[in-house]
Amino acid sequence: MIEKVPDTRALPSPARRAWDALGAMLDGPLTGLAPWIVLAVVEGPGRLGWAAGIALALSVFFVAADLLRGRSLKLLGVIDVVFFAALLAVHFLLDQAGQDWMETWVGEIANITLVVIAVGSMLARMPFTIQYAREEVDEQYWRTPRFLRINYVITAVWAAAFLVAAIAGFYGDTVLRDSDNLWTGWVIQTAAMLIALQFSAWYPEDPRPPLSALLAPLAVWLIPVGILILTADGGPGWLGYTFIAAGVAAQAFLRKGE
Fold first, then answer.
1. pLDDT tens-digit profile of 139-191?
2. What is the DSSP string of 58-106?
3. CA distance 116 to 57
4. H-assigned helices in the chain
5. What crossing angle do the helices spanning 96-123 and 30-42 adopt, rounded to 10°?
6. Cα distance between residue 149 and residue 118, in whole Å
7. Which tens digits make up the pLDDT trace of 104-152?
8. Gap between the Cα atoms of 258 and 219, Å rounded
9. pTM of the model
10. What distance separates the 2 farthest-apart alpha carbons in the chain?
11. Distance between CA atoms of 156 and 244, rounded to whole angstroms?
């Protein structure tokens, strides 16, 4: 018996598979938000110029990648390029005192800008997530009430997450006088973004998965928070162990209920 050899010509080339994988990564509003996340992670004393430069390069890359793939030009992508180009230019134009001020407040400036973008896009009846969603959904569904409602709700959740992050950062800078405070600078802001990200994946599903499917991945976040408390002096030891135990127990309980 002669074994049939598969026709490898029908298989996509490694380059094509890599391009398709890259395309899958680039589809979705997270690409438009990635430069802002990079800014939050990289910026710090003496690093604002580097943070703005990397965020700008990433913004240009995402816009160019969309155009090369025949995708539409996204409002958020254009705003990314304009904002980070302006931030980089302003950084080099400021004196040392101005740079110090900008390094202190750039997190709040970025988050408030994102709130304005999200709320403004809804007021303009074009929630910023809808341009990404249209490239994943057939055109016949673009004007359906369900499609529109999903994008308004998800955009509103992101707006709330940006607002929470801005308030947390403002409290850390003005009240605590500590921009690197574990809770206001990292835990609360990261939690807000993770909740919005998980909600964006959970909410559009039809039929919608149980609430446990939304909460279970978020419960995992309690474990690294507990570890951070123990290793970064973010609170008493018992609080760190409580977070770790709560994360393990909550995840087990929620997974069991799925």
1. 898 999 999 999 999 999 999 999 999 999 999 989 988 888 889 988 999 89
2. HHHHHHHHHHHTTPPPPHHHHHHHHHHHHHHHHHHHS-HHHHHHHHHHH
3. 23
4. 14-26, 30-42, 48-68, 75-93, 96-123, 130-134, 145-174, 188-202, 211-219, 222-231, 237-257
5. 160
6. 15
7. 899 999 999 999 999 999 999 999 999 888 888 888 989 999 999 999 9
8. 14
9. 0.84
10. 81
11. 30
Q: Tell me the C-alpha distance between 124 and 77, whole Å.
A: 17
Name the token pair of 244.
Answer: 């770790």
Lowest mean pLDDT among 71-75, 141-145, 220-224, 234-238: 71-75
Residues 6+ apart with CB under 8 A from 165: 107, 111, 188, 189, 192, 193
Which two structure tokens, joined as six digits, stand for 201?
């994946």
